[in-house]
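Researcher: Let's do a round of design. I'm pasting the structure tokens now; please hold your answer until I've finished.
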């Protein structure tokens, strides 16, 4: 099923993100993870595409196919273009189609060290146009409530977001954020440009301090005072920090859902325990919203 149909049916879409296991030995753990995630009944699961965009050892197609065919959950395959030629992208698109995948999250990818580009694509919108021409896939893309970390400012970023919509993206998934006000401001600004695509808020439950440090330098997201307070208080107590991270994410989600967002995309980090705790806390809220649409 194309995810557009899911958005048309529901007032609130709830989805997960997972990443392919890094080594063959960890493949077994992904079966267990998927078994547990499937029971939480997400609307779809998206599967990331390895940094660097190499065709070698790319397990995104294989895992997306597993999500869809074995676990019966709709799949969205991420695909980056910065390091690929048109021929390589076409090879992957043909492979995705052969595996029955109907949804792609089309991305540029991060610029490699030294800034040397190997591929035919410079920006995500070019990949989106290329995929759109085939007519086979529903295309989603990324958006950044606080602006892209390497971008000039939010205003320019939004102009480029509009370009992605005009090129064929019908759905956006946001980068993680910890202060909902950035997301609300972003929604207001994108409305001014008449961007109509559905937008899911990307939520990452933070469960350890190293993860937070990596994220802030990689994505450039702001950390609100109350979030920093939690991290500093429990940084040496793994379980307490995990539980506080889950509680923080739940509070963010309740606020977003009550404000009428199109969807929540949970960055699960392949951790079914955290995904389950969050899903259990918000399932009655999700059901309530979608019941209102059904009436
Ligand atoms: P673009 O939309 O091309 O934007 C990149 C930058 O270029 C922005 O600053 C934008 O303003 C600017 N820009 C765009 N168009 C133009 C133009 N015409 N002229 C001038 N400037 C322009 N990375 C992975 O490697 N694998 C993944 O699976 C993955 N999944 C992700 C999922 C989500 C939900 C998100 C938010 C990010 C993900 N990323 C992933 C990271 C992503 O690849 C990086 O953030 C990357 O740096 C930008 O990708 P993009 O598709 O947003 O690029």
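Researcher: That's everything. Go ahead.
Model: Designed sequence:
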């Amino acid at each position: 099923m194309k995810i557009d149909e899911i958005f048309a049916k529901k007032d609130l879409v709830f989805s997960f993100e997972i990443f392919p296991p890094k080594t063959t030995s960890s493949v077994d753990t992904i079966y267990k993870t998927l078994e547990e995630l499937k029971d939480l009944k997400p609307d779809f699961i998206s599967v990331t595409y390895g940094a660097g965009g190499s065709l070698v050892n790319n397990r995104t197609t294989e895992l997306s196919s597993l999500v869809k065919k074995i676990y019966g959950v709709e799949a969205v395959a991420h695909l980056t273009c910065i390091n690929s030629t048109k021929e390589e992208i076409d090879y992957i698109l043909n492979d995705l189609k052969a595996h029955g995948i109907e949804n792609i999250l089309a991305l540029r990818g991060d610029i490699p060290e030294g800034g040397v580009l190997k591929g035919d694509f410079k920006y995500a919108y070019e990949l989106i146009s290329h995929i759109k021409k085939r007519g086979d896939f529903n295309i989603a893309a990324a958006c950044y409530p606080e602006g892209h970390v390497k971008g000039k400012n939010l205003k320019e970023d939004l102009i480029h977001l509009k370009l992605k919509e005009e090129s064929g993206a019908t759905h956006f998934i946001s980068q993680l954020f910890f202060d909902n006000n950035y997301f609300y401001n972003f929604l207001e600004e994108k409305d001014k440009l008449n961007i109509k695509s559905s937008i899911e808020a990307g939520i990452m439950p933070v469960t350890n301090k190293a993860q937070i440090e990596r994220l802030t330098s990689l994505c450039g997201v702001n950390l609100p005072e109350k979030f920093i307070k939690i991290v500093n208080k429990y940084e040496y107590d793994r379980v307490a920090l995990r539980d506080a991270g889950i509680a923080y994410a739940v509070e963010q989600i309740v606020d977003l859902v009550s404000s009428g967002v199109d969807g929540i995309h949970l960055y699960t980090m392949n951790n079914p325990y955290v995904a389950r705790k969050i899903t259990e806390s918000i399932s009655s809220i999700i059901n309530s919203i979608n019941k209102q649409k059904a009436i």
